[in-house]
Write a structure and sequence with these properties.
The protein is of the alpha/beta class. It has one domain: Rossmann fold (3-Layer(aba) Sandwich), CATH 3.40.50.150. Helix content is about 30%, strand content about 20%. It is built from nine helices and seven strands. The protein has a seven-stranded mixed β-sheet, sandwiched between helices. It is globular, with a radius of gyration of 23 Å. The structure holds S-adenosylmethionine. The site of S-adenosylmethionine has 22 residues, from strand 2 and helix 5.
Length: about 260
């Protein structure tokens, strides 16, 4: 999955994924393995978090996270074929649960998860028909099932100009941080970088990345960390009516 323009729409179709998973019975991690992402995941998602992995596919990342100490991960995918295979594969790993679900209509309660991880799922929706509508439904659902202060982490090939406009939710804005990391096996990955991946990259007003990184660099992956606002539950006291204000200035009657 690399480009949206001119892309066949298959990646957005349930039948495409069912077919693919019927043929590929092994495991495959898109873009990055857990090892490359661990510093970022560990920084934003404590191991005690109640986690949701959207569009899990047959990736090994959830298993690797459990082996690294994560306690519960609910995994969902639109393909019943892959969900059945993963339930069977991980029947002896109770920390991992699998359910068939469409990310655009999640069967979970409001605020059920501390963190949501998405590696390549949003990208496949962006390759489908009605991509902007699908993306908006997904972001609405992801925000709904996140706790206040919760984190949605998106790992994608999409640079800020093609991702930020969809991630920004108009109804309730959230803080978005961006991290950039080299694609495994790329020249950038071999050369190494002095910049730790845990250091967020600043974004210009025009959604460019400054001199260090160029947009549409095929050797980069982007990690967007969207943090749901932590609404202060303590509402300010209601304004007193003017008649009440006057009476409250009076001294309390003294007992004789
Ligand atoms: C590019 S693969 C990524 C798989 C895995 N996350 C990984 O990192 O290797 C995209 C996954 O999203 C799933 N998917 C596509 N549309 C979906 C939807 N509307 N709801 C839930 N899962 C979906 C596909 O079945 C597929 O497993």
């Amino acid at each position: 999955m690399t480009k949206e323009k001119g892309q066949p729409q298959a990646y957005g179709d349930e039948s495409y994924w069912d077919n693919r998973y019927s043929q590929d019975v092994g495991s495959f991690d898109w873009y990055q393995r857990y090892g490359g992402l661990a510093p970022l995941i560990n920084m934003y998602m404590p191991k005690t978090n109640n986690l949701l992995m959207v569009g899990c596919g047959n990736a090994v990342i959830s298993e690797d996270m459990v082996n690294d100490g994560y306690q519960t991960i609910m995994n969902i995918d639109i393909s019943q074929v892959v969900i059945d295979a993963m339930i069977e594969k991980y029947k002896d790993m109770p920390q991992l649960q699998y359910q068939r679900m469409d990310v655009r209509s999640l069967g979970f309660k409001d605020g059920e998860f501390d963190s949501i991880l998405d590696k390549g799922m949003f990208d496949s929706l962006m390759c489908g028909s009605s991509a902007p509508t699908s993306a908006a439904s997904m972001i609405k659902e992801v925000r709904r099932v996140l706790k206040p202060g919760g984190v949605y982490m998106l790992i994608t090939y999409g640079d800020p100009r093609v991702r930020i406009p969809h991630l920004k939710s108009e109804e309730a804005p959230w803080e978005i941080k961006l991290h950039v990391l080299p694609r495994p096996g790329s020249k950038r990955a071999h050369e190494g970088t002095s910049r730790p991946i845990t250091e967020p990259v600043s974004l210009g007003e025009d959604l460019t990345l400054g001199p260090t990184f160029k947009l549409e660099d095929p050797d980069l992956h982007y990690v967007y960390v969207c943090i749901k606002e932590n609404v202060n539950p303590i509402a300010p006291p209601p304004e007193k009516k003017s008649s009440e204000k006057k009476s409250s200035n009076k001294k309390a009657p003294q007992k004789k």
